[in-house]
Specification:
nine-stranded mixed β-sheet; single chain; alpha+beta; 188 residues
Length: 188
């Protein structure tokens, strides 16, 4: 659901003061010391993001955000009907141009994870501590939103962010899983 097409307002999102709008889920589980935030890698740039996409016709914004969490990460859960904040980022369009997009973020308590989902294999998923997640994302407003949601203060000296996997690494991981699965079949 990351791709933008030049046709239809549904794919372009609602305009707000000249900016496009998207909706996102902030997937979380656990409490206190066990609180974890799920980040997904973007398909194009392989940077860490949260599941997001364009508003959907005939769906509320929070329902569209929950749909994105399922499509991009295979998640089910209880999603808030109100956003906890917003952030902006530059969306690279298919034409090569970039457009500023504002994203409304809805927290989602994850209650289940599917074995398969529409974008499985296209993204990498990682459950991170709130500090790791906040430091892994590139957008400062999203970093601050994650920290505020988790009730944490980020360290003054920031460790290196959790690196998103490169396409080569993702391909190697897929190949390794396939070889391991095939090896298990032939060893019987």
């Amino acid at each position: 659901m990351d791709e933008v097409t030049d046709t239809g307002a549904k794919q372009e999102g609602r305009k707000s003061g000249g900016k496009r709008r998207q909706v996102a889920a902030l997937p979380w589980r656990g409490e206190g010391e066990t609180l974890r935030i799920l980040l997904v890698s973007s398909r194009e740039t392989r940077r860490w993001v949260i599941p997001k996409g364009w508003p959907m016709k005939d769906k509320t914004d929070f329902a569209a955000a929950a749909q994105e969490a399922y499509e991009e990460a295979g998640l089910d859960g209880v999603i808030s009907e109100r956003p906890i904040g917003e952030y902006e980022y530059l969306k690279k369009l298919k034409s090569g141009a970039a457009r500023l997009v504002k994203v409304d973020v809805f927290p989602m308590q994850v209650t289940g994870e599917h074995a398969t989902w529409p974008e499985k294999g296209q993204r990498t998923l990682d459950w991170m501590t709130p500090v790791e997640a906040a430091l892994a994302v590139q957008e400062p407003d999203l970093r601050d939103l994650i920290a505020r949601f988790a009730g944490i203060e980020l360290p003054e000296e920031r460790p290196a962010p959790h690196p998103a996997p490169t396409p080569v690494r993702v391909a190697f991981q897929r190949l390794r899983r396939r070889v391991t699965a095939l090896w298990g079949r032939y060893r019987r």
